[in-house]
Design brief:
two-stranded antiparallel sheet; about 25% strand; about 290 residues; elongated; alpha+beta
Length: about 290
């Protein structure tokens, strides 16, 4: 699972300068928005702790992109909290309101803890501990991410410089980095394509036949990490050299509930007005249009 800790920084300053009722409203509003963002990205809020939360991505249902969902949720929390901080500063004059977020991925055990009349579901594992430590060391307004999550995501996220950190209770240093945003321009490394001669021949033949007006459907299927993206990047380059226009649409799991999301992305990538024939007639759409 991927654990996310989010915590309000500067709550002590708020407590010393404002009435308790105002602090509850400000901090409570922030935590409410934490929860809403986490749930919108498919996560579960495991614990509430006054001015912070622990959220888990990967329970009760696992997604193939849980680490990415967690990081995107952390970035969205910071975006929403920047607006919240502006409102707090305008209403109270307190201008050091901020939020720290820490994230890490790893095995997590979920089970009942407690005793007597008080029992609840607890989450235990290094990922939870590291995420909590990272959150406490993050600068307000940032999302500090641990090495396991960074390894899972690679260049799908843009990263700040690595920070070797000594974390309490963790042996050795942990190389963390600040998540800067989703890297929509990510591409496979510029290295030679190895041992894909048969697959590349089939794709090259399809490109050549396409130039002659013969359409084809090609499925590239395989487990994660075996080089599908690298193979398609090579096919893209060969199509470009052959003078074939390449348009690309992605079916993002986060847009699973949005009708025609993949088709919309495909049309946008065309870069010009596109006519799509369907059962409901001809649909004309222009980039940036409705």
């Amino acid at each position: 699972m991927t654990a996310l800790f989010a915590d309000v920084a500067g709550s002590t300053t708020l407590t010393s300068r404002l009435d308790p009722e105002d602090v509850v409203e400000i901090v409570g509003g922030a935590v409410r928005q934490f929860c809403e963002v986490v749930e919108s990205f498919g996560g579960v809020v495991k614990d509430l702790a006054g001015d912070g939360i622990l959220a888990l991505f990967g329970t009760p249902y696992a997604h193939e992109d849980d680490p990415e969902r967690a990081v995107l949720a952390g970035l969205e929390i910071q975006r929403v909290m920047a607006l919240h901080a502006e409102n707090v500063a305008e209403a109270t004059g307190v201008d050091d309101f901020g939020v720290r977020v820490g994230i890490e991925t790893g095995p997590v055990v979920i089970g009942l803890v407690g005793g007597g009349s008080h029992r609840e579901t607890g989450a235990t594992g290094d990922a939870v501990n590291v995420a909590a430590r990272l959150q406490s060391l993050a600068d307000p307004g940032t999302v500090l991410v641990g090495p396991e999550t960074r390894h899972e995501l690679g260049d799908r996220i843009s990263w700040g410089p690595g920070r070797p950190l000594e974390l309490k209770g963790v042996s050795g240093s942990v190389e963390a980095a600040v998540a800067l945003g989703r890297n929509t321009g990510a591409s496979p490394p510029d290295v030679p394509l190895v041992a894909r001669h048969d697959e590349m021949r089939l794709l090259t033949d399809a490109i050549e036949r396409l130039k002659e007006g013969a359409g084809h459907t090609v499925f590239v299927v395989g487990e994660a990490g075996i080089g599908k993206s690298r193979l398609l990047a090579e096919a893209h380059e060969r199509a470009r050299r052959a003078g074939v226009t390449w348009i690309e649409g992605r079916c993002d799991p986060l847009e699973a509930s949005e009708p025609f999301a993949g088709l919309r992305d495909l049309i946008r990538s065309a870069g010009s007005p596109v006519a799509v024939e369907g059962d409901t007639g001809t649909i004309l759409r222009r980039l940036g249009g409705g």
